[in-house]
Design goal:
CATH superfamily of the largest domain: Citrate Synthase, domain 1
Strand content: 5-15%
Order of helices and strands: EEEEHEEEHHHHHHHHHHHHHHHHH
Strand order of the largest sheet: 5-6-7
Largest sheet: 3 strands, antiparallel
Distance between the termini: 59 Å
Shape: globular
CATH class of the largest domain: Mainly Alpha
Structural class: mainly alpha
Helix content: 40-55%
Number of helices: 18
CATH topology of the largest domain: Citrate Synthase, domain 1
Bound molecules: s-citryldethia Coenzyme A
Length: 424
């Protein structure tokens, strides 16, 4: 691919191009400002690449998502979440021995320092679990102050992935006033989480294999998604050489937004509202088309997927299977299906290429598994953890990485002299 040319103020500038392994083309503007004094402007970075990455490939037009080259459909069907964690972070699927060691690490690092329980005591029972997760992940940096040392990175990666489900489950137990359940060493990563969430000291708890498989699927589908809002936040914070824990905590905060990972909670709240309104889904499709309403069909639309989101397609199928296997009759699923059908035939959505995204069906499955609505975005964060970590690690190991510092176009007041209070 040859150079790009920009003609500015009758002067021509040649800019090199970069072509990726999937033939994506980027114009490298890193030298443009030095030559022209002009910058490029792309608010929201919708058309700007922040980095080159070998982790996840998305083709929004064709609905393709691959982790390290493996199609999401194959990983969803055949892999375990801990395999996908290893793949994203270390670049290859683990061999038997490697996976065994990785799983052992996840098991033996799942406990929290006992003093962290005191931090939970300070929260009100109404505390949102995303606020708790973000602050507790930041607090891990106080217990592991050497997290910034490169030779301690692997153990801190292990600690973070292993302890996050424990923190999440503790925040749930705190909210419902039940005693904390400790992780067990005889359980897999997903079994342990379900056990910590739903076991009670008074009686034995058996993990339902249908629920465990659904959890494994949901975590894999959320594991990475290239340079989305929260991942870009993790890279931004990590570029200042802030440690892993606080960089990931920043990503958790960004994910909480209702336009991003917080949408899965909003989808269920929206479906419940429609159900309470006599299942009148057409009314809400019409409302979403009316700009003045400020209402959006949560779980619809995507910055990159302008065709179907492959994760939504997998979750739509899984919703049927999981609810059927669990014997759950969920009226919200019927509403979701009708919403999707009506919207996909409606010119407003077709014209804007708005399709269901990963958040549209995930909440229905979480609900059937017994996960409370307020925990949905925490579930998204648990899935996204290996993606954030892999992107942070790739950024920190790239010798070309510099502290992220975008430019701006100033539109404020030009120079003016200070006026004393008496003269204002
Ligand atoms: C995630 O980036 C990622 O990869 C994110 C994610 C990941 O895995 O990390 O995939 C996870 O965040 C999925 C998205 C979850 N958010 C929602 O479901 C919230 C509802 N969706 C939207 O708010 C919106 O679609 C976004 C934020 C997802 C995408 O926004 P865009 O691409 O910037 O779209 P836009 O806001 O510029 O809207 C384009 C048009 C507008 O209409 P016009 O001004 O052109 O007339 O589409 C309309 C919007 O009003 N529109 C919607 C809509 N989404 C966009 N109208 C109704 N309902 C919607 N959901």
């Amino acid at each position: 691919m040859g150079n790009a040319k920009i003609l500015l103020d009758e002067k021509e500038y040649e800019l090199p191009t970069v072509v990726g392994s999937e033939d994506e083309v980027g114009i490298d503007i890193s030298k443009f400002r030095a030559q022209s004094r002009a910058i490029t402007l792309d608010s929201g970075y919708g058309n700007t690449g922040s980095c080159q990455s070998a982790i996840t490939f998305i083709n929004g037009e064709k609905g393709i998502l691959r982790y390290r080259g493996y199609p999401i459909e194959q990983l969803a069907k055949q892999a375990s979440f801990s395999e996908v964690c290893y793949l994203l972070i270390y670049g290859e699927l683990p061999g038997g021995q490697q996976l065994e060691e990785f799983n052992r690490g996840l098991t033996y690092h799942s406990m929290l320092h006992e003093d962290m329980k005191k931090l939970f005591e300070g929260y009100p029972p109404t505390a949102h679990p995303m606020a708790i997760l973000s602050s507790m992940v930041t607090s891990l940096a106080t217990y592991y102050p050497h997290a910034h040392l490169e030779d301690r990175l692997d153990v801190n990666i292990m600690r973070l992935i292993a302890k996050a489900p424990t923190i999440a489950a503790l925040s749930y137990k705190k909210a419902i006033g039940q005693p904390f359940i400790y992780p067990r060493n005889d359980m897999s990563y997903t079994e342990n989480f379900l056990h910590m969430m739903f076991a009670v000291p008074a009686e034995p708890y058996t993990v339902n294999p249908v629920v465990e498989r659904a959890l494994n699927l949901l975590l894999i589908l959320h594991a990475d998604h290239e340079q989305n809002c929260s991942t870009s936040t993790v890279r931004m914070v990590g570029s200042s050489h802030a440690n892993l824990y606080v960089s990931i905590a920043a990503g958790i905060s960004a994910l909480w937004g209702p336009l991003h990972g917080g949408a899965n909670q909003k989808v269920i709240e929206m479906l419940k509202m429609i159900h309470a309104d006599g299942d009148n889904y057409q009314k809400y499709v019409d409302k979403a088309k009316d700009k003045s309403s400020g209402f959006r069909l949560m779980g619809f639309g995507h910055r990159v997927y302008k065709n179907f989101d492959p994760r939504a397609r997998i979750l739509k199928e899984a919703a049927d299977a999981v609810l059927d296997q669990l014997g759950v009759d969920e009226p919200l699923l019927e509403i979701a299906r009708n919403l999707e059908k009506v919207a996909l035939e409606d010119e407003f959505f077709i014209e804007r290429r708005l399709y269901p995204n990963v958040d549209f069906y995930s909440g229905i499955i979480y609900s059937a598994m017994g996960i409370p609505t307020k925990m949905f975005t925490v579930m998204f964060a648990l899935g996204r953890l290996p993606g954030w970590i892999s992107q942070w690690k790739e950024m920190r190991e790239d010798p070309k990485t510099k502290i992220n510092r975008p430019r701006q176009i100033y539109t404020g007041a030009t120079e003016r002299a200070y006026v004393s209070i008496d003269d204002r």
